[in-house]
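# step 3/5: fold
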Amino acid sequence: MDIPASIIVISPHLDDAVFSCGNLIAASHAAMVVTVFAGEPAPAPGAPEWDLAAGFSSGAQAVRARRQEDGRALRRLGAEPVWLDFLDGQYGGRRTAVDIAVRLGRLLSLQRRATIVAPLGVYHPDHVLVNAACMLLREAVAVDHSALAVADDEAPAPAPAPQQWLFYEDAIHRRMPGALQSRLAGWWQEGLIAAPVHLPLSQPQYQSRKALAVEAYESQLRLFNAEQLADISVPERYWTLDPHPKPAR
């Protein structure tokens, strides 16, 4: 598969897109990264354990710093950041797949020519929730496109081509034993076949730009162990989804 000219990467947190898709973002001519859980929590005393370990005194301070890191990283890759105001799971608050799908749908409806690159949603609850939202949106778009194609039997108007979807393996979380296999098996049970996609992303210039972008996430990198850091440099892997072929009669 050729590298898409225009992509929109859906990122659960303020680092996932670069950690998981940095080479692809660097290779694309036009990339937008939409981070779902980029909302700033209300001021409150103390901070969650992860933020405290990163050196922050409050969740609000942590999100502001991470937005700065994310903006710096994406500038190094030539990508445009979009930060939604849903709260990271560690801050609590109401978050549903439907609400997230609605917000994403409004954005994606303005970018119909872009390839959507979404997380597989393995292991981490926030990643699982974003994947569920993307699957709802993908199905809704497919149904809408089918309806447009048959809206007028006598003089059908050419319907716009459906957006192409790719799914990326969530860096660091894909290391969890059985996590990736469970996600692929779950799709099979839902009537979907996941197929790996080869993209020409091994060029040194893409790898070096990703490495430079990864360095921007200083507050996060200091909390990862050696194996987690190494996983960020593992070749990126992408999948397509298609329905099971109907059995021949």
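# step 4/5: annotate
The chain has a mean pLDDT of 90.
# step 5/5: archive (pending)
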